[in-house]
Specification:
Length: 166
């Protein structure tokens, strides 16, 4: 008896790049900071929605579907940074997922009329994005490493991460 293979039409559609250029991630964080500050100033649900959508698109496929990701990879890195620092992709995807959780929470809070709470959540997001942008310090990546060392994220998710910090 021959087993049928799963269809392959979806392969690559939701893939996140691995490895990634850290300068592209930092550039994206800078763009997120700008949009997040605008979101706090304007304090409208639709703007929190755009912020959350950007994170969702980056979680889904890295820079492939994200306007900020594409701008960072194709314009900012080659024209401004002109550098490359290769880092593992899975921790960056995890960090984008945390950003989605924060921006999604802000969107929901805003929809329920809790604008100040939404602004506070986005303020925390700005702080994390600033650390990434200015210093290359990715809090989501640190969390990923801690979860991987604790065995919550299997070592197979990021083989190149296994020796990080050891």
């Amino acid at each position: 008896m021959k087993l049928e293979q799963a269809p392959t039409w979806h392969r690559g559609v939701l893939d996140f790049p691995n490895p990634v250029n850290d300068y592209a991630a930092r550039s994206t964080a800078g763009l997120v900071i700008a949009l997040a500050i605008a979101s706090i100033v304007v304090n409208q649900s639709w703007l929190y929605g755009i912020l959350a959508l950007g994170f969702a698109l980056r979680v889904a496929g890295g820079p492939r579907y994200s306007p900020f990701g594409r701008l960072a990879v194709h314009v900012i890195v080659p024209q401004v940074w002109q550098k490359e620092k290769i880092v593992p992709g899975p921790p960056k995807r995890f960090a984008q997922t945390i950003g989605l959780a924060f921006s999604g929470t802000a969107l929901v809070l805003s929809l329920f009329g809790l604008g100040l709470a939404a602004q506070i959540v986005v303020g925390a997001l700005i702080a994390a994005a600033f650390l990434e942008f200015a210093f290359g310090l990715c809090l989501g990546c640190i969390g990923f490493g801690l979860l991987q060392r604790a065995g919550i994220i299997p070592a197979s998710v990021c083989e190149s991460c296994n020796n990080f910090g050891r």
